[in-house]
Amino acid sequence: MRKTLFLTMMALLPFSSAVADRLSSEPIQPIEPFVSTEPEKVELGKKLFFDPRLSRSGFISCNSCHNLSSGGSDNLPTSIGHNWQQGPINSPTVLNSSLSLAQFWDGRAADLQEQAAGPISNPMEMAFTHSLAVDVLRSIPQYVADFNKIYGSNEITIDQVTNAIAAFEETLVTPNARFDLWLKGNDNALTETELAGYQKFKETGCVACHHGVAIGGTSFQRMGLIEAYQTDNPAEGRIAVTGNDADRFSFKVPTLRNVELTYPYFHDGAYWKLEDAVDVMARLQLGQQLAEQDIKNITAFLKTLTGDQPQFVLPQLPPSTSNTPIPVPFD
Amino acid sequence: MRKTLFLTMMALLPFSSAVADRLSSEPIQPIEPFVSTEPEKVELGKKLFFDPRLSRSGFISCNSCHNLSSGGSDNLPTSIGHNWQQGPINSPTVLNSSLSLAQFWDGRAADLQEQAAGPISNPMEMAFTHSLAVDVLRSIPQYVADFNKIYGSNEITIDQVTNAIAAFEETLVTPNARFDLWLKGNDNALTETELAGYQKFKETGCVACHHGVAIGGTSFQRMGLIEAYQTDNPAEGRIAVTGNDADRFSFKVPTLRNVELTYPYFHDGAYWKLEDAVDVMARLQLGQQLAEQDIKNITAFLKTLTGDQPQFVLPQLPPSTSNTPIPVPFD
Questions:
Q1: Cβ contacts of B329 on chain A, cutoff 8 Å
Q2: Which chain B residues are within 8 Å of A84, Cβ to Cβ?
Q3: CA B26 to each of CA A43, B22, B96: distance values in angstroms, whole numbers, following the listed order
Q4: Which residue blocks in B125-215 are alpha helix, DSSP H?
Q5: What are phi and psi of B237, to 5 degrees?
Q6: Residue A101 and which of A224, B149, B228, B270 are 20 to 30 A apart at CA?
Q7: B319 to A71: CB separation less than 8 angstroms, yes or no
Q8: Do B68 and A326 lie within an 8 Å CB cutoff?
Q9: How far is B5 from chain A (nearest CA, A)?
Q10: How confident is the model at residue B201 (pLDDT cuts 50, 70, 90)?
Q11: Phi/psi class of residue B198: alpha, beta or left (left: φ > 0; alpha: ψ in -120 to 50)?
């Protein structure tokens, strides 16, 4: 009996310690599924996220540029806004965005709720006003009932709207990436190429910025640290928030989770191929010219960061009523 | 025993005969759920329906203008196309569209497959070409595998693309509207107001055109039969297809299924309120000025035609590869 127990423990040990080792020693941590304590708020936020009536045109919803069918992004260099205006910067993925230290490339919003208020009233994006957006929702009895149930008032406010959207967005984490399974001790989850890529990713120094649960999103860094980044995009990054000259061209380090799905890359969306993005990053940020095979291996590793995508039934939006303000698609 | 059986039969009779009566005698028939014999093709079609890479910009999908979160329509007078072009005509709902005698307002497409080919290459809508759309799909291994499994070839063709989209669209029927429950014998499914509205709907003559399973979609009719329809919209309807002068201003009679969700109304999308649409139709098509109460009752009846909306998990689109043609959102 004792002997059996001992052997069982011995059999378990290498696995357990490997798990403990990776979880504590690797610079990247796995994502756990998000379990909301407020499922009704999440459902409301999901509807709002998909509702184009939060835009002036009645055509653009949060999901237009953070498309949950395609990695929470629009896969365009910069987004298309009201009246087909060209957005100034690449639309970051909404997936795992709750894990970032701040929102937007320049971190000008402290959290998801603050972020959600931005595009609705941005004249280049949804081009609406908070007041009009709230008027639309107040005119729809099903929304009024939903808000009342959650916030205990018939007076819908923009803070409630963005609070509910943020609650939905918090659920948009992507657990069970193959890399996470490996982190948790499943040696078969990665191929040798992918593991070699991960080793090179660490050795090269990528983990200095791309670490943590989101493998990014924890700091602002200058784009073009060793060598200047060539771009036509006029965005200057964090300086717009801090006014500090040292923050010029400093951007939030993007998450690498689901990076296979969130092309094109960088704040200007100038690079479509992950291999090219790896090459540019190593040169500009770390002063290293990676060998072609290393680029391939790192790219293979990066593709193991694709996790379970959000899985939910397409929401049904409550219909407008005769009191609902009419959208203005063409001015 | 005999007596019990007799009483049981007597108890059932009024119900059964009422059911048989309504199903055979009413001019409207219930919708049955669609069960596809080709679930894999439906799944592929669903992805394609949601894939904005079938457009030049990479931004517009079938779902943009036939939004399955909002009654299969975009709830705009006329649609927004590539480069924010204003479409020429109201986007009809895709829900129950398989039940129409033809597709588009002027019936220029014989069926759903022929329809699906239109917007992809229409320069005012998705502004792509069939050849480029197919190039995009051929560059994505997951799509190649899907098509191969269904069509038995690695050569994706536009006919396969539209065939799969049509197979998905065929599933978009909306059974179990309250009116259908009433048709099937459930006397409690409708209120007295709604029933009175239905009676008035029949008496007024609306059923002459709005009958059958889709309550429309079975014929082309002149818009403004008794009194001319005033509109700025230059669409001339069926004459564009037949060249026959008698078909000028003749349009496909739209389905009234889910009409509560598919505002604004008519081919020009000029009317936002269902009450107004009822009033206009009675005057222009039937020469009748309905009393306000009758309009209210008919509107109440029309709202019982909202059925079960499509319920499915938001599809996940396979990512582009380094071989995928890059979208052109801004020319």
A1: 76-77, 80, 86
A2: 83-84, 330
A3: 39, 5, 20
A4: 130-138, 141-151, 158-170, 178-183, 192-204
A5: 80, -140
A6: A224
A7: yes
A8: no
A9: 46
A10: very high
A11: alpha
Q: Which of A211, A239, A207, A242 is nearest to A223 (CA)?
A: A239
Q: Give tens-digit pLDDT for B250-290.
A: 999 999 999 999 999 999 999 999 999 999 999 999 999 99
Which pLDDT tens digit goes with each residue over B157-175?
999 999 999 999 999 999 9
A243/chain B closest Cα distance in angstroms: 32
pLDDT in tens, B202-229: 999 999 999 999 999 999 999 999 999 9
The tokens for A41 are 């708020």
Q: What is the dihedral of CA B227, B233, B237, B243, to 10 degrees?
A: 100
A125 is catalytic: yes
Which residue among B80, B309, B326 places its CB closest to the CB of A316?
A: B309
- pLDDT for the residue A6: 47
Task: Check residue B10 and give its pLDDT.
Answer: 46
Whether residue A260 contacts residue A306, with contact meaning beta carbons closer than 8 Å, is answered with: yes
Q: Note whether B316 and B142 are within 8 A (CB).
A: no
- With contacts defined as CB-CB under 8 Å, which chain B residues touch A171? none
Cα B80 to Cα B165: distance, rounded to the nearest angstrom: 21
Q: Does the beta-carbon distance from B316 to A322 stay under 8 Å?
A: no
Interface predicted TM-score (ipTM) of this complex, two decimals = 0.94
Chain B: closest CA distance from residue A314 (Å): 5
pLDDT of A222 over the 60 cut:
yes
Strand pairing report for B220-222 and A250-252: unpaired
Whether the CA torsion A165, A170, A171, A177 is positive or negative: it is: positive
Is pLDDT above 90 for A146?
Answer: yes
Would you call A75 and B58 a contact, using CB atoms and an 8 Å cutoff?
yes
Instruction: State whether A327 and B64 contact (CB < 8 Å).
Output: no
Question: DSSP for A28-45?
Answer: B-PPPPP--S-HHHHHHH
Residue A331, pLDDT score:
86
Averaged pLDDT, A43-62:
98
pLDDT band at A19 (very low <50, low <70, confident <90, very high): low
Specify the DSSP class assigned to residue B222: E
Q: Residue A77: pLDDT above 50?
A: yes
- Please, which pLDDT band fits residue A328 given cuts at 50, 70 and 90? very high
Is B194:B301 a contact under the CB 8 Å cutoff?
yes
Give chain B's length. 331
Q: Is the pLDDT of residue A138 over 80?
A: yes
Cα–Cα distances in angstroms (integers) from residue A44 to residues A146, B94, B137, in the given order: 7, 25, 34
Catalytic entry in B38, B43, B125, B275 = B125
Place of tokens 């059986």: B5
Check CB contact of B273 with chain A, cutoff 8 Å.
Answer: yes
Residues contacting A200, CB < 8 A, separation 6+ = A290, A294, A297, A298, A301
Residue in the block written with tokens 């291996």: A297
> B86: helix, coil or strand?
strand
Q: Euclidean distance between the first and final Cα of chain A, in Å?
A: 82
